[in-house]
Design brief:
Elements lengths: L6 E9 L3 H12 L4 E4 L13 E2 L1 H9 L3 H6 L3 E3 L1 E5 L4 E6 L10 E3 L2 H12 L5 E4 L3 E8 L2 E9 L2 E12 L6 H5 L4 E4 L3 E8 L10 E6 L4 E6 L4 E8 L3 H7 L1 H11 L17 E4 L2 E4 L3 E2 L2 E3 L5 E2 L7 H21 L5 H35 L8 H8 L1 H13 L10
Parallel strand pairs: 1-2, 1-11, 2-8, 5-14, 11-20
Antiparallel strand pairs: 3-7, 4-7, 5-6, 9-10, 10-11, 12-18, 13-16, 13-17, 14-15, 15-16, 18-21, 19-20
This protein binds flavin-adenine dinucleotide.
Flavin-adenine dinucleotide (FAD) binds next to α1, β9 and α8.
Length: about 400
């Protein structure tokens, strides 16, 4: 839909073309449900967006016949999650050992994935996407949500729909406009993302390494052509870090990861870093009459475990499984929307509970300590038992309630 009508009618209007919105739009179109997908930005190119695709997401794509193509988009395939301190080097999750068609975490730049999916969806007659379409208002008729008003290139447009889906991420406009309150928790940390060139002669495994020092911590993801690093700092301490100067920061990284000593100096300006204020939370009710929130709009995920994209995709699959027929037959009720929440919420709460535990027991105590950190006993025990390492990998990869696409 290159030149939108001032007013468009459709069955489903989705706000936000992130992983949740794009997958939901693709699947609705595949089921013959007309969709208008509105994306506020001009493209999908965002620096430091999540890019870890677990087996549960790859299996969904496999069902659609896309897994081979998508796996080719991987910058790398992560087999292990390792935890290293000055005294310990332990493996806590063994993805390579999982019984799965996809025994790895695919590191796929989100921009490539979204472009691929939108290209595929473009072949379906019921799929319509409008870029640079910023939703500004929810339309209501007799107290029921009935579509949106959006702005594109300074002009105002409207979409009338049976169902509006807010898939517009952590700062969701749909959530705010519908006056749905987000119950937030502020984990004790913020993350400074930056990328470092891979040092010549470095023998890097395809793994995610967590390095912990005295009061400091960095997560390193080998992305094939560079290393993506997340330097974890106490919440609100970014200003202090900047005041100490970039050299101090470079030295901190070298003390955690000496193998980066030849390339960390490539990060010489704070502009090369992006600070993520870590927030987690969820809304109590994911829906109102005619409106449903999914993905980060319904539950903001902590970066722990790199699962946010995967939960967004699983929400989208469940949404279409539960609602497609009711929408097609124009018998959609608020009870149907409640079924989406009942299906997905337990899995979300479970992983958020796990993330909270990891944040408190590992990250918080590591950041607060000025002594060399020793991993908690349960983690050390897990690292010694192969079966447990595979179980943890499987839990991160699939969660409590992996979804499969129905109606194919
Ligand atoms: C820095 C960072 C690193 C992360 N790393 C990882 C990781 O490694 N692995 C992982 O699994 N997760 C990661 N996450 C979390 C992950 O990105 C999210 O959980 C996931 O993207 C949620 O998908 P979503 O589709 O719900 O929302 P989003 O991906 O946030 O997509 C929302 C879309 O809505 C659009 N939008 C917003 N407002 C409007 C509007 N008013 N009108 C129209 N469009 C609008 C936005 O432009 C965006 O395209 C990370 C998050 C951040 C911020």
């Amino acid at each position: 839909m290159s030149a939108p009508e001032l007013s468009t009618k459709t069955q489903v209007c989705i706000i936000g073309a992130g992983p949740a919105g794009v997958i939901a739009a693709y699947l609705f179109s595949l089921r013959g449900v007309p969709v208008v997908l509105l994306e506020g930005e001009n493209n999908f190119d965002r620096e430091f967006r999540g890019d870890t695709f677990h087996a549960s997401s790859l299996e969904v794509l496999d069902q659609l016949g896309f897994a081979d193509d998508v796996v080719k988009l991987c910058n790398s395939k992560v087999g292990q999650l390792n935890f290293k301190t000055s005294e310990y080097s332990i493996q806590v999750a063994d993805f390579a050992g999982m019984k799965s068609k996809f025994p790895f975490v695919g590191i796929i730049p989100q921009v490539k994935f979204l472009n691929y999916m939108v290209r595929k969806a473009g072949a379906l007659p019921d799929f319509n996407i409008i870029m640079r379409a910023k939703v500004k208002e929810l339309k209501q008729v007799n107290g029921k949500n009935s579509g949106v008003k959006y702005k594109k290139d300074g002009e105002e447009f409207e979409v009338d729909s049976l169902l509006t889906i807010g898939a517009d991420g952590r700062g969701s406009t749909a959530r705010r406009l519908a006056n749905i309150k987000l119950g937030k928790t502020s984990p004790p940390m913020d993350v400074l993302w930056f990328r470092v060139a891979i040092p010549k002669d470095a023998e890097l495994q395809e793994s995610v390494d967590i390095r912990v020092g005295s009061g400091s911590m960095v997560v390193m993801v080998n992305r094939g052509d560079y290393i993506q690093c997340g330097y974890i700092i106490m919440k609100g301490s970014y200003k202090e870090l900047r005041n100490e100067g970039i050299e101090h920061f470079q030295n901190e990284i070298i003390s955690l990861a000496p193998e980066l000593s030849s390339t960390i100096f490539g990060v010489s300006d704070w502009k090369q870093c992006a600070i993520l204020s870590v927030v987690t939370g969820s809304v109590e009710k994911w829906y109102q009459e005619g409106l449903l929130l999914i993905g980060d709009a319904a539950h903001i995920m902590s970066p722990v475990g790199g699962v946010g994209i995967n939960y967004a995709i699983q929400d989208a699959v469940a949404t279409v499984n539960i609602l497609a027929d009711a929408i097609k037959e124009e018998r959609l009720s608020t009870d149907d929307l409640a079924k989406v929440q009942s299906r997905r919420e337990p899995a979300v709460k479970f992983i958020q509970g796990f993330q909270l535990f990891a944040q408190k027991r590992i990250i918080s105590s590591a950041l607060k300590s000025d002594k060399p950190f020793s991993p908690p006993l349960p983690l050390r025990i897990v690292s010694k038992i192969s079966f447990m390492r595979k179980r943890i990998a499987k839990f991160l990869a699939y969660g409590k309630c992996p979804e499969r696409v129905e109606g194919l």
